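Hi support team,

I've been running sequence recovery on a batch of backbones for a student project. Most finish fine, but this one hangs at about 90% for roughly twenty minutes before it completes. I'm not sure whether the input is malformed or the queue is just slow. I've pasted the structure tokens below so you can try to reproduce it. Let me know if you need the job ID as well.

Thanks,
M.K.
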């Protein structure tokens, strides 16, 4: 696997440097044996990746107040102390606005 990844790295680096690279020839496109080897490499990478990132075990981010799925939950929440309604509660000449 390491040899295949090194070959792929050389191909990519050559392309990045602007070199003319025969990608199909270097990677073995059309050669049944080489294509099978690449398929094996991809399977190994996927298997290794699944060890690091198991499916169904993803970490969920906490939702913000505006992302609540249930509208009842959002309605039950009390406004925070900096909401605009707090500033508008005061009446009369002593009203203070922040």
């Amino acid at each position: 696997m390491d040899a295949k990844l090194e070959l792929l790295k050389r191909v990519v680096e050559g392309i990045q440097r602007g070199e003319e690279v025969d990608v199909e020839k270097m990677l073995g496109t059309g050669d049944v044996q080489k294509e099978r080897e690449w398929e094996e490499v991809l399977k190994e990478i996927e298997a290794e990746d699944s060890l690091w990132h198991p499916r169904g075990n993803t970490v969920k981010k906490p939702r913000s107040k505006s992302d609540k799925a249930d509208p009842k939950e959002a309605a039950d929440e009390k406004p925070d102390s900096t909401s605009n309604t707090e500033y508008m509660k005061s009446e009369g000449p002593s009203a203070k606005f922040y």
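--
Follow-up from support: It reproduced on our side and the slowdown came from queue contention, not your input. The mean pLDDT is 76. No action needed from you.
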